[in-house]
Design goal:
By secondary structure, this protein is an all-alpha fold. The protein is built from five helices and two strands, in the order E-E-H-H-H-H-H.
Length: 202
C-alpha cells in the first residue's frame, strides 16, 4: 500500500532519485527518463479525460464508457511505471513484484479489435486533431510512442533488468489510443486525412 505523508523530502536536491528497490540513481538515468515519460503519458490521458466531459449531465453512455476505459489505462500506466522503476533481479520470484504481464497487453489487442472493427478503413494518415478529446488522445498517443522508444533503449542497455513486456504494452497502447481518437472524431467521420504535398506549388 502506498502512503504519502510528505510531498517534498529534499533527498533529490543532489540530482538523484530513489528507485523502487531503494537504490539511488541520477535523475537523468535512462530508466528514470523512461518511467517519467510513462507518467507524462498518463497525465496526457488525464487531460483527454477532462476534455471528454463525461461528468456533464448530458454526457451519453458511450462517452462514459470511453472515459472508464481511459481511466483503466491510467491504472495500467502506473503499473508500467512501477515495473520500470523496479529493475528486474535474477533471484526475483514470479509474482513477487508488480510487473506488466502478457494478459494486460492481450487486453489491449482485444480492445483495438473491438473499437477498430466498425471504423472505415483509412486511405491516408490522419492529421492529429479534430475534437478536443481526439486531439488529447493523439497527444497521449505520441507521448506513449516516446515512452516506448525510451523503453526500447533501456532494454537494449539493460536487458537483464528490464521487463520486455513493458515495450509490447506501450506499443499496443499507442495503437489503441489512435483508434480511440478516431472514435472520438465521430467514429472517423471527423478525421482529416493527410494530403501528401498539399502545399507544394503545382
Amino acid at each position: 500500500m502506498v502512503k504519502l505523508t510528505r510531498i517534498y523530502t529534499k533527498t533529490g536536491d543532489d540530482g538523484t532519485t530513489g528507485l523502487a528497490n531503494g537504490l539511488r540513481t541520477p535523475k537523468d538515468n535512462p530508466r528514470v527518463e523512461t518511467y517519467g515519460t510513462v507518467d507524462e503519458a498518463n497525465a496526457a490521458i488525464g487531460l483527454a479525460i477532462a476534455h471528454a466531459g463525461a461528468d456533464a449531465p448530458n454526457a451519453d453512455e458511450s462517452r462514459r464508457c470511453l472515459v472508464a476505459l481511459l481511466r483503466s489505462l491510467q491504472h495500467d500506466l502506473f503499473d508500467c511505471g512501477a515495473d520500470l522503476a523496479t529493475p528486474l533481479e535474477s533471484s526475483e520470484k514470479p509474482g513477487s513484484r508488480l510487473r506488466i504481464i502478457p494478459a494486460q497487453t492481450q487486453r489491449l489487442e482485444h480492445l483495438i479489435d473491438e473499437y477498430n472493427d466498425p471504423l472505415s478503413p483509412l486511405t491516408s494518415f490522419v492529421l492529429p486533431g479534430g475534437s478536443p478529446l481526439a486531439a488529447g488522445l493523439h497527444l497521449a498517443r505520441t507521448v506513449v510512442r516516446r515512452a516506448e522508444r525510451l523503453a526500447v533503449g533501456l532494454r537494449r542497455s539493460d536487458p537483464d533488468t528490464t521487463n520486455p513486456e513493458t515495450i509490447r504494452y506501450l506499443n499496443r497502447l499507442s495503437d489503441l489510443l489512435f483508434v480511440l481518437a478516431r472514435i472520438a472524431n465521430d467514429h472517423g467521420a471527423g478525421d482529416v486525412l493527410w494530403v501528401p504535398g498539399a502545399n507544394r506549388p503545382r
